[in-house]
């Protein structure tokens, strides 16, 4: 039995030494040292040996088992580390290699313009407001001195929908607002002065061509306090022209008619390409054709508008202006778009230029 054990020790050492994979080692462990393995089979013979030899042979069997376990562990460690060493060669990752950047988007030109305009007006004390884009007839028209059936509404009437409210100002129908001027009555009825509102929102009209979109944005300025006059309006317009369009750009006002301002004006900005001359290298300026670009309407708030919101026109006066965000973005040097609708076609090749 002693010889059998010694022979087994040598066999185990030989087989483990030549095993090339972890799986073979697992098999050898079962074959030699497992519950039904060769060592157990030899130990069954212990019952037949003399009581004197039994402890000696038992100790030897334990020694063979322990030696086998030690060899198995050592060989397993060797094989595992060489396996990872091989992996390190075949699957090497260079951590210093530049990664692949995901495609990054950016803010839409209209959003960028809204932020820029907001910054410019906040510097002179205006605060941003946002009033409903679907609003009651009162706010969109009547409070602005346009009673039902007045012809001044014609160009501005869009989609109306029936609605119900118990509020006296919220009667009749609701409308997709054609301008941000509906914000004027909302702001005035708060009766907190001075009012220095910059309302920015979406507007809707029955128009679609190179300079008109059916959905566009306006920014509406409303400044109401004691003693507000036309020179404040001129100052604000010139301030905006220079801040937004660049040094040397100025504004010009021309008489116009709006029901909610008196006097009313159209506002033009001097063209940055021809320097307000209308001529470039002896040719008519392609951008403005006559030196000036029209950007929107403005005027002194009509007393009826103040009264409609319970504001005393003898005490307070105000100025208001409403311009298109897309239009001013289009007129900025470096943009110069020849069709407003491209802004909403979601063509990434166009959008990523800004
Ligand atoms: C108005 O909407 C007045 N509520 C503006 C106003 C406010 C006047 C306060 C006085 C006091 P108008 O319809 O002209 O006015 O539009 C103003 C500007 O909005 C236009 O000059 C243009 O810049 C822009 N705009 C108008 N219609 C469109 C459209 N369909 N697409 C893109 N921009 C437009």
The percent range for helix content is 25-40%
CATH class of the largest domain, named Alpha Beta
Q: Number of domains in the coordinates?
A: 2
Ligands in the structure? adenosine-5'-[phenylalaninyl-phosphate]
Arrangement of strands in the largest sheet: 1-5-6-12-11-8-7
Quick one: CATH superfamily of the largest domain? Bira Bifunctional Protein, Domain 2
Structural class of the secondary elements? alpha+beta
**What fraction strand?**
15-25%
The CATH architecture assignment of the largest domain turns out to be 2-Layer Sandwich
Global geometry? elongated
Low-confidence stretches: none
Q: What is the N-to-C order of secondary-structure elements (H for helix, E for strand)? A: HHHHHEEHEEHEEHEEEEEHEHH
Work out the radius of gyration: 43 Å
Major sheet characteristics: 7 strands, mixed
Q: Looking at CATH, which topology of the largest domain would you report?
A: BirA Bifunctional Protein, domain 2
First-last Cα distance: 90 Å
The number of E-state strands comes to: 12
- What is the subunit arrangement here? single chain
Number of helices: 11
């Amino acid at each position: 039995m002693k010889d059998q054990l010694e022979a087994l020790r040598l066999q185990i050492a030989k087989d483990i030494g030549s095993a090339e994979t972890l799986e073979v080692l697992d098999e050898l462990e079962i074959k030699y040292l497992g519950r039904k393995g060769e060592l157990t089979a030899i130990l069954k013979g212990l019952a037949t040996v003399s009581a004197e030899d039994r402890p000696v042979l038992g100790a030897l069997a334990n020694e063979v088992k322990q030696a086998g376990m030690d060899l198995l562990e050592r060989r397993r460690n060797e094989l595992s580390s060489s396996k990872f060493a091989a992996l390190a060669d075949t699957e090497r990752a260079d951590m210093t290699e530049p990664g692949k950047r995901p495609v990054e988007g950016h803010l839409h030109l209209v959003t960028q313009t809204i932020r820029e305009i907001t910054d410019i007006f906040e510097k002179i004390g205006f605060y941003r407001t946002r009033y409903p884009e679907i609003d009651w007839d009162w706010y969109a028209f009547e409070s602005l001195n346009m009673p039902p059936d007045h012809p001044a509404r014609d160009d501005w009437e869009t989609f109306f929908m029936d609605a119900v409210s118990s509020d006296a100002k919220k009667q009749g129908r609701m409308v997709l607002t054609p301008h941000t001027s509906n914000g004027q009555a909302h702001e005035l009825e708060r009766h907190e002065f001075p009012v220095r509102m910059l309302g920015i929102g979406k507007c809707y009209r029955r128009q679609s061509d190179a300079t008109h979109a059916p959905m566009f944005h306006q920014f509406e300025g409303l400044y109401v306090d004691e003693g507000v006059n036309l020179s404040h309006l001129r100052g604000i317009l010139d301030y905006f022209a220079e801040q937004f369009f660049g040094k040397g750009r100025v504004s010009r006002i021309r008489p116009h008619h709006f029901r909610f301002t008196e006097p009313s004006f159209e506002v033009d900005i001097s063209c940055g390409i021809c320097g307000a001359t209308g001529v470039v290298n002896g040719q008519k300026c392609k951008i403005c054709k006559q030196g000036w670009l029209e950007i929107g309407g403005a005027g002194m708030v009509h007393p009826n508008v103040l009264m409609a919101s319970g504001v005393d026109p003898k005490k307070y006066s105000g100025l208001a202006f409403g311009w298109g965000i897309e239009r001013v973005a289009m007129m900025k040097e470096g943009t110069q778009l020849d069709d407003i609708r491209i802004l909403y076609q979601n063509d990434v090749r166009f959008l990523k230029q800004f």
